[in-house]
Design brief:
single chain, five-stranded mixed sheet, WD repeat, WD40 repeat, DCAF8, repeat, WD40_rpt
């Protein structure tokens, strides 16, 4: 939709305003204005690492950039000259995943976290007077209390004394440099490192209604810059959690496993809250610059925006709301999905309804309807509908809003990208709230539910649509189609029952049930376990073979061959895993039923907006970031080596740039300038600035030319997401396999694609 205007005003007007009345607000609005975003181009490539670059961060004034890599080094770059200042030999023994400048230390203190489960603090002043190649520094502080990989660090603006580390061991630790500068390795005798701020080793949930039970392997954390007492974490389930540090219990040691503390809010898109899929997890969570919104990036999923504060425009739902959304007999006067857009835009002026806006919206709806009829340009037609509903919902009357909702639902059902059917359900629900006797809303709802495999509910809506318009041939065919699907499902179920067929347990089931029943299946008593540093593990013995006719898939960079797995529990002397699972399976249902009876599920905050087009499958360090001091644009890396930029308000795709030969993971916007730094599998860092001679939606980089058809790129990414859904544990297994390779010294440049 190149002809659509953007919502950040005319840059010439902003320049004129700044010349008349300079203000910080105008500078913020100009930092990454739409006219600059569309001119972003690769300016420079920083060379200095010998492995994948997994972490980037600017210092507070933007004069320095820090990076961490698989080469076990931290590099410090000068922003003005775009040159390497220091390359520090950290002493880590596994991939560096995170690194930060410690605030208010004159940029002399930097901290790193790595796959060796260690957090290390370095003083850069110790490099002064040394030879250029003498870059090994003894850590000023060394924390070894984690038992799994450290995936993310957080610092508080203005606080030079504390750093927080999030680890896959299920704990978030608070390290205060004033109290200690070292701690013994986890598991050693008499370890009493009291640094655990969040113990989430029993904190993961498979669904909103389930009690927390499994270890929440933390992947990401962030501290609000505007309200630093607020802490956001995300990990190996679908729910991001917001905590108020003032309300948390005192720091503890890890020798006793604690129940997860209550959080302020759960964040999860409603359609992801009841999946029960063990592979669904977050790779990145972050606050917006003003602290009012959070951004969540999921593995095998999309990027989602949500509001932080409860109040107007916030939709907090429970499991009952999830069930009611699909029910024909639900109460249409309940909460609206998604929440309405605020009537006060970001520039602070009240939005006035006018004839020009209504005319523009009417034209956009007609464009969308025409694309639906012709079956062409579906992606851009959805963007046109997004513009009406997300930017001008309060400027149009209910009739036009209803028409746009139904049209967008139909377009989503035609496009069939991942979770498009769930988005269509939301639109149909809102359309029914406007007109409870809407034929289109009922018909498209039946189509959406049929695509989701909810045929009983689909038939209810199809019958209602047929009652509203008995002569419509399409709805008659829809009713018959759904009846055939129901009949086929019933026949299949009867055949399985008659033959005594039982469902074959997947590896996902085995791992989940084993974790759920670990307390009853191990000889150690619960009391003994709680008083120790015991942490139950599963080991996968992986054997691979590669024949002459097998090898690397050139399209997916995947190795094809046979893979044999032997699963056993650490400390069980190789007792067969199958016996444990079978013996405990009957108890699982009973235990789960008791937990559900006593557990009172919390609510969760639903999505505000979704950003689609990229692919996040290959890595669990992939970031989604707010761009600029006002956070008006959203950016994410992708498995195809590109990075995507969307307009936050409407989800409209702004820019696609080629930034890596394999996978792009990290995106960090400069604090003040119109500059972005990115990194990924390549051992270089790319610096981007608005230097292109003409604005465009897509652009190339060092890795390749400009992409002509961005829709084809996104279609390919959606296919990868769907394949990942069918193979939920493939990524995790490959992660562990490549970790074993790295430990044995068999380093491969693609290792960190499964970081």
């Amino acid at each position: 939709m190149e002809n659509l205007s953007f919502h950040d005003g005319n840059i010439f007007n902003l320049l004129h305003t700044r010349s008349q009345d300079p203000s910080h607000e105008v500078d913020q609005r100009m930092q990454l204005h739409s006219s600059l975003v569309r001119r972003l181009s690769q300016e420079q490539e920083l060379e200095g690492h010998q492995g994948c670059v997994n972490a980037l961060a600017w210092n507070s004034n933007g004069s320095l950039l820090i990076s961490g890599s698989d080469d076990l080094r931290i590099n410090i770059w000068n922003y003005s000259s775009r040159t390497l200042l220091h390359s520090i030999d950290t002493g880590h023994t596994a991939n560096i995943f995170c690194t930060k400048f410690v605030p208010e230390t004159s940029d002399e203190l930097v901290v790193s976290g790595a796959g060796d489960a260690e957090v290390r603090l370095f003083n850069l002043s110790h490099l002064s007077g040394r030879a250029e190649d003498d870059n090994a520094i003894t850590p000023s502080a060394l924390y070894q209390c984690h038992t799994r990989r450290v995936k993310k660090l957080a610092v508080e603006p203005g606080n030079p004394n504390v750093v927080w580390s999030a680890s896959e061991d299920g704990t978030l630790r608070q390290h205060d440099f004033r109290e200690s500068t070292s701690c013994p390795p986890a598991g050693t005798a008499h370890q009493e490192c009291r640094s655990v701020l969040l113990d989430l080793r029993s904190g993961a949930k498979r669904a909103l209604a389930d009690p927390p039970k499994q270890t929440l392997s933390l992947k990401s954390c962030d501290i609000s810059a505007t309200r630093p007492h607020l802490l956001l974490v995300g990990g190996s389930d679908a729910f991001a959690r917001l905590y108020d540090r003032r309300m948390l219990p005192p720091l503890t040691s890890s020798r006793k496993r604690m129940p997860p503390p209550p959080c302020v809010n759960y964040f999860c898109p409603m359609h992801l809250s009841d999946r029960g899929r063990t592979n669904l997890h977050l790779t990145h969570v972050t606050f917006s610059p003003n602290g009012e919104e959070v951004l969540l990036s999921y593995s095998g999923e999309h990027v989602y925006l949500m509001n932080v504060n409860n109040g107007t425009g916030i939709m907090q739902y429970t499991q009952g709301d999830v069930d009611n959304l699909f029910s024909f007999s639900n109460n249409l006067h309940d909460v609206e999905y998604p929440p309405q857009v605020s009537t006060t835009p970001q520039n602070g002026f009240h939005r006035n309804c006018n004839a020009a806006t209504v005319k523009k919206c009417t034209e956009l709806v007609e464009i969308a309807k025409r694309s639906l009829e012709e079956g062409t340009d579906v992606f851009y037609a959805i963007e046109a509908a997004n513009e009406v509903l997300d930017a001008h919902s309060n400027d149009i009357d209910s009739a036009l809003r209803h028409e746009c909702l139904c049209t967008r639902a139909a377009l989503l059902l035609k496009r069939k990208w991942k979770n498009d059917a769930h988005m269509a359900v939301r639109d149909c629900h809102n359309a029914r709230k406007i007109d409870a006797s809407s034929f289109k809303a009922h018909y498209y709802m039946s189509e959406a539910l049929q695509q989701l495999g909810r045929c009983k509910e689909a038939l209810d809506f199809a019958n209602a649509a047929q009652h509203l318009n008995p002569s419509d041939a399409d709805v008659v065919a829809k009713v018959e189609s759904i009846k055939r699907d129901l009949q086929a499902a019933g026949s299949e179920k009867n055949e399985e029952t008659g033959a005594g067929t039982t469902r074959v347990l997947s590896l996902s089931d085995i791992l989940y049930r084993s974790e759920a029943n670990s307390d009853s299946s191990h000889d150690m008593s619960r009391s003994e376990r709680e008083d120790s540093d015991y942490d139950e593990e599963l080991e996968l013995d992986i054997q691979t073979s590669l024949s002459d006719d097998e090898g690397r898939d050139p399209e997916s960079n995947a190795m094809r061959g046979s893979l044999n797995l032997r699963i056993h529990r650490v400390g069980d002397d190789d007792k067969p895993m199958e016996n444990t699972v079978d013996n405990a399976s009957s108890g699982t249902a009973s235990s789960s039923q008791n937990d559900r009876t006593s557990y009172q599920p919390e609510g969760a905050i639903d999505m505000k907006r979704r950003y689609v087009g990229h692919c996040n499958v290959g890595t669990d360090i992939k970031q989604a970031s707010f761009l600029g001091q006002r956070g008006e644009y959203i950016a994410s890396g992708s498995d195809d080596g590109r990075w995507f930029i969307w307009e936050k308000q409407t989800g409209r795709l702004m820019k696609v740039l080629v930034g890596d030969e394999a996978v792009l993971n990290c995106i960090q916007c400069h604090p003040f300038d119109s500059v972005v730094a990115t990194s990924g599998i390549d051992n270089t860092i790319k610096i981007w600035s608005p230097t292109a001679s003409v604005p465009s939606v897509v652009a190339g980089g060092s890795a390749g030319p400009a992409t002509a058809n961005v829709v084809e790129v996104m279609e390919s990414n959606q296919q990868k997401l769907s394949r990942n859904r069918e193979n939920p544990l493939s990524v995790e297994l490959m992660q562990r396999f490549r970790m074993q390779e790295f430990a044995e010294g068999n380093f491969h440049p693609f290792e960190c694609t499964q970081s």
